[in-house]
Amino acid sequence: MITPQEIRKKAERKYIDYLKSLVSKKPFDKLIIRGDKKYTKSSLPEFEKEIQAIVSQSKEKSAYGYSLDFQQVKTKHLGTQDLPISIYFETEQDFLKFLGNQKEVDFFKLNVKKITNVFPYLEEWIINKPIKVIQNEKKWDDILKVCLYFKNNPLPSLYVRELPIKIHTKFIEDNKGVIKELLDVVISDYIQKDKKQFEKRFNLKYAEPQIRFKVLDQEISQTFFSGLDDIAIQISQFENLHLPIEKVIVFENKTNFYTALTLPKMRKTIALFGSGFRVYNLKNVKWFKDKTILYWGDLDAQGFEILSQFRGYFPNVKSIFMDKKTFNKFFENDNGTLSKVLTKLNLTEKEKMLYDILKENNWRLEQEKIPLDYVNSYFEKEYANALNHTH
């Protein structure tokens, strides 16, 4: 037989539909809870205990809650007994008092009125997401201020914290989820639908990722950057650079990027910090496509996975210091991070063989463990070869 706890769970599942009916102004209809007509067959005391449990929390005993209709039924095992044939909430008050949600619903009604008075066409959103109205019950004055501002200024081109709205400076940042859903409706004709980032989607300024790079050609440094050679600029500015370079060296981590500061000068070359898997920030740098791109990552599974990702953007990427000779020479029995990647990687045969060994044994040779004289020796030879080709 159904228990009071099961009745509560079933009543709670009907709460969302009840809230929806409030928004669409449907009158409260008797709310029926489907019961379980089975009962304990073993003994009369057990049966009476089940009946007593249901009755104890009914409207008959508590002055509110669910009502029970009984009917005399001749049972196979326990003779003629009164069995509950119907469980229902007769009034809205019975339902809400039983759930303990009266105060919550009062706030809900107040906020629905508040929202629809300003934006009547948000009624459909409320019907679809009534719980979000409740989850944000104390924030609606400020949420509506934000929506009204965007309604009147759909192309603000300001940073989030610059917006002239009388709210806490972090309010929008802390409530982006619900505000995004509302603005998608309120200013649907102005949003960048293909953008997921809040600032891009709603025409705001945003802090772009920065690309840090080292100019290894003194002449380019002097001509284009007044002699500066260690530079960090926004990705959009980096994408639009027009430098007479031929080679780009990408370092996976920052520690080894600092190695670039000691690299020998190289003609028409820059070195930059790729920042691990964030090499995706470089995927739209179109001027990379006709350059020689060298990638130096850690000798571990993730290093090769990042190389594969980067090569997906630029097929011309060549790895350096990511070979078996370098690994065997400097490996110090360090463990890496276990890789769960199962997809086929964009690696050469030699890279794939070393990747499989590193992944299987969870080995790692970090970039920092490769001595500077070994690195500089490689680049000095590269530089000498480049000079020979120019003569």
UniProtKB/TrEMBL annotation:
Q: Which residues form a coiled coil?
A: none
Q: Which Pfam families match?
A: DUF3322, JetD_C
Tell me where on the tree of life, at the top rank, the source sits.
Bacteria
Q: Wadjet protein JetD C-terminal domain: which residues?
A: 206-376
Indicate the segments forming the DUF3322 domain, all copies.
Answer: 4-184
Q: Which InterPro entries match?
A: DUF3322, JetD_C
Q: What protein does this entry describe?
A: Wadjet protein JetD C-terminal domain-containing protein
User: What is the organism field in this record?
Assistant: Maribacter ulvicola
